[in-house]
Amino acid sequence: MSHTAHIPSHRKPRRSASKLAVRAGVAGGVLSTLAMAGTASATPVEPVTETLEMPVLNLDLGSEVASAVTKAADNSGVAALEGELNAQEETARTGAAAEAKKAKEEAQKKADAEKKAKEEADRKAAAERASRNDARTSLGTKSSPDTSRPTAETGPVAPVAKGSAAAIVNFARAQVGKAYVLGGTGPSSYDCSGLVRAAYRQAGISLPRMSQDQSTAGRSVSLSALQPGDILYWGSKGSAYHVAVYVGGGKFVGAQNPRTGIVERSMSYDRPTGAVRVL
């Protein structure tokens, strides 16, 4: 056995802070009591009836740590909730933008389809009208009738074209069968106003180029009092969309469309809106 085995360790065990606080409070209370007792033995006084409360030190560090941990956990939960809400808002905005884009594309497709359908309907209507024109033309005579004699078809005797009017009518009829070309001014093809302008040039008269202006080139005349060489127009005066030359006998010569070209037609087939007389 070691010669120091019987000697106890000189190191004192460590005491906790809470125990030290309690012992300090007890020691303080004892010393205060002894001091008061000594004073009482020297001088007689009334017995002390007041109770002294000793302060208690709150050193419960565990509860403070737990509170701090709980607070930190709460803060983390709030941050996580805010992050989730932000993510949901972003998803909602993205979804709304996608829906708006899809709706716009669908609306555009619908508009395109409606436009295409309208164009197709217009094309079919034009084709049917042109077909009717061809059918009616085939029923009529290809040669120009003698308008100086009344017939069941021509009605009353029409005035015979003379002078400048004859030059205009003869030129217009000589162009029947030629092609219609938009913007054409001859000699192999014409559009409606190009044909009228070229016909009047034979009489030494210069007309405006466009049908709108040609419809206001002369004085207005009634459709029941037409003379050969008068200008017929369709649409409003000053904004006409088509013109032709009246050749007598209730007929006109005009450059109709690319399908039919330049033809001679009865006014009953496509009655004009009005007429003007330049001669």
Keyphrases for this structure?
279 residues; alpha+beta; endopeptidase fold (from Nostoc punctiforme); six-stranded antiparallel β-sheet; two-stranded parallel sheet
Residue windows where pLDDT falls under 50 for at least 5 positions: 39-43, 137-158
> What is the name of the CATH class of one domain?
Alpha Beta
Report, as a whole number of angstroms, the end-to-end distance: 157 Å
> What is the number of helical segments per DSSP (H or I, 4+ residues)?
5
The strands making up the biggest β-sheet line up spatially as 3-8-4-5-6-7
Return the CATH topology of one domain.
endopeptidase fold (from Nostoc punctiforme)
- Supply the CATH superfamily name of one domain: endopeptidase domain like (from Nostoc punctiforme)
Content-based structural category: alpha+beta
Q: How many DSSP E strands? A: 8
Q: Average the pLDDT over all residues and give the rounded result.
A: 74
Order of helices and strands: HHHEEHHEEEEEE
User: What is the overall silhouette?
Assistant: rod-shaped
Quaternary assembly: single chain
Helix content: 40-55%
Mind describing the biggest β-sheet? Answer: 6 strands, antiparallel
Residues in β-strands, percent: 5-15%
